[in-house]
Amino acid sequence: MKDPVVAKRPARPGDTGAERGVAAAPHASEAPIPPTPEAPETTKAPHVRPGDRIFRGLATGSGVFIVVLIGAIGLFLILQAIPSLGLDNVNFLTSREWNTTDPTNLRFGILDLTLVTVVVAVLALLIAMPIALGIALFLTQYAPRNLARPFAYVVDLLAAVPSIVFGLWGLFVLGPVLFPFSEWLIENLGWIPLLAKGNVNVQLGGTIFTAGIVVAVMILPIITAVSREVFERTPTMHIEGAIALGATKWEVVRTTVLPFGKAGYVSASMLGLGRALGETIAVAIILSTATSSFGWSLFDGGSTFASKIALAAPEFNDARSAGAYIAAGLVLFVLTFVVNAIARSIVAGHKEYE
Amino acid sequence: MKIQRHGAVLGLVAASALLLSACGSDNNAPTGGTNNTTSNAASVPVECGGKTKLNAEGSSAQKNAVDAFVQAYQAACPGVDLAYNPSGSGAGVKNFNAGQVDFGGSDSALKEGAETTDSTKRCKENPAWNLPLVFGPVAVGYKVSGVDSLVLDAKTTAAIFSGAVKKWNDPAIKALNGSATLPDKDIAVIYRSDESGTTDNFQKYLKVAGGWTKGDGKQFKGGVGEGKEKSAGVAQAVGSIDGAITYVEWSFAQDNKLSVAKIDSGAGAVELTAETAGKAIDEAKIKGEGNNLVLDLDSIYGSKAAGAYPLLLATYEIVCSKGYDADTAKAVKAFLTVAATTGQQQLADAGYVPLPKAFQDKILTAVKAIA
After folding, report:
1. Chain A residue numbers touching B217 (CB-CB < 8 A)
2. Which of A132, A308, A352, B103 has the fewest CB atoms within 10 Å, counting from its CB?
3. Are residues B96 and B172 in the same domain?
4. Low-confidence ranges of chain B (pLDDT < 50)
5. What is the distance in angstroms between the CA of the first residue and the CA of the last residue of chain B?
6. Where are the alpha helices (DSSP H) in chain B?
């Protein structure tokens, strides 16, 4: 797991040894380099050892590989999408129509898909972020040591549940359970556009509301795991200092753990958001497709990019129709890219906490 | 300490993997009764032999039927197997044409143009044949409390699925159901959100018989209601709300205990049974040439024959007329022979309609001619 906060810590001037011991565990990071027999520390010009060279080659290779891979995916999407985009008879970016039955009259636009995708993902994030924060703080600050570890495994296990299982759970269990609550919301708070009566049957639970909650559960372990790792590395000196000043537990968390871990927590959430944007099968199973377009209600149905593609993919038999879906996939690719870029910039903008 | 932690994680992962794999379900194909709706089942000799492992791919609508065929095939020819990948009709045609599978399954016949020319190339410059081996009736399933019996005609069905008729006690429905008391309740239309041959056939039926103007194709065009994923999704949805209606393969309607509407094509209300659906197959005209048994679906959908249930989904096996190597040809012929005879006996249990005798003979003639 990548953790820029930790990786950069030892380089900071003014670091104390004690802090570094907590933060980066130097002995562990040196372990992979095998000691060579004739390794006295001399003042000679540094000569590169074979192990060093191999390791560097492998690391560089991996880095280049992933860049090439992403480039290739992007290129594939663009090449497949362009012919269909040229045949599109409506505006690709602003149309809400999606009709690819007749390859000679393609009419597809992504506005509805974008809105539903973003709303599902944002709802999931809004639910998952505070809960993940609570879990991570509990595991690192409040839970007894011997309870924290098994607890963390259980949370991680959540990430191992296949998304189709979450989908079925959402369809058969959560949807019906949410019905009375959803109905109550619509009846009493329906004047808020977000909670207005939607374009699908609330009783079936195939709404953005249900899908958002299920996706929230799915991204919970990712956000929790990364946040936990970051919070765990809060310098003991800071914590002890706060306690010495008479801070209560909550004040310790607020003044040391949170400021220190904020950047890591935000980037963990962005990682979760990326997953939420691309969640496919669970959303395809839960979310009802609607015949009218998205009207800004959480109780609307619709399709996300990924679910739209998944629902149509088995019956692709014309390159032009398939290209329309691949064009949608391309937009999702770009959207995820933008989200990650935002996450990176947020992390970079919080350097003062490192 | 670090190592111990990893060990514990590994242990947990291994344990849960074991647990999960232990839960894997065995797909027990229906083994139930063998009702002899097809008369000459046992009398056709099967020439076993050739390749022991066949590959096929395509329409998921015929997956359960193919499972039943494979069982019958293995019973007739010990030691053989056929792997059917239900990845969809589009994929089935594509991979058949690419020579990846021995035959393809599709819920529509090969289209003129690229699909046909590619298939000819794949069969070493011989035509590919479309053999309609599996017929599945599509039920108009509904759930309205207090309404156990409902009669619909194509015109009213089209009106319901396009949003023109919105209430269960609409005069159009009342006119067809004289005595029944229909509630003043909204009709909740449920359709397939995924692209599906069932949707395509349903819309084609409405177009031929019910004046449907919304268009056909694998996406639902009615502009009303909400979509759920796959047959299981729509059937489950209709089962859980009062006042819902959908079109779904018969077996799913049965499994989810949905009421099935009777269809009135002009000669009285017809209940969906294996017999009434078989009667509609008998009415079918073939528009393909020779042994290429492409169906004229309009002749089924538009059928006004008394006692025939016209809403059927026909799925084809797409095979080469010639151009297989000797081993493959022998095995394909053996499999199709079994599928058209003993294999059909179990179909009723799986929600399909066994082939009527006259139609079966046509298929067998075609299978025999494969070289």
Report:
1. 101-102
2. A352
3. no
4. 1-3, 17-41
5. 69
6. 2-22, 63-76, 89-97, 114-122, 154-161, 171-176, 197-210, 230-240, 250-255, 274-283, 297-301, 326-340, 357-369
**Of B276, B296, B330, the domain-final residue:** B276
Question: A98-353 in CATH: which number?
Answer: 1.10.3720.10
Give the tens place of pLDDT for each residue, A124-175: 999 999 999 999 999 999 999 899 989 989 988 988 999 999 999 999 999 9
**Residues of chain B with C-beta less than 8 angstroms from the C-beta of A101:** 215-219, 221
Judged by a CB distance cut-off of 8 A, whether residue A314 touches chain B is yes
Residues A176, B91: C-beta atoms closer than 8 Å? no
In chain A, what residues touch B16 (CB-CB under 8 Å)? 157, 160
Chain B residues lying within 8 Å of A199, measured CB to CB: 226
CATH number of the domain to which B176 belongs? 3.40.190.10
Domain count, chain B: 2
> Is residue B247 domain-shared with residue B272, that is, in the same domain?
yes
Residue B192's domain comprises 137-276
pTM for this predicted structure: 0.81
Show which of B252, B276, B300 is a domain's final residue.
B276
> B interface mutation test: which of A183, A285, A300, A315 has the most B CBs within 10 A?
A315
A107-108/B53-58 β-pairing:
unpaired
Task: Answer yes or no: do B219 and A172 touch at CB < 8 A.
Answer: no
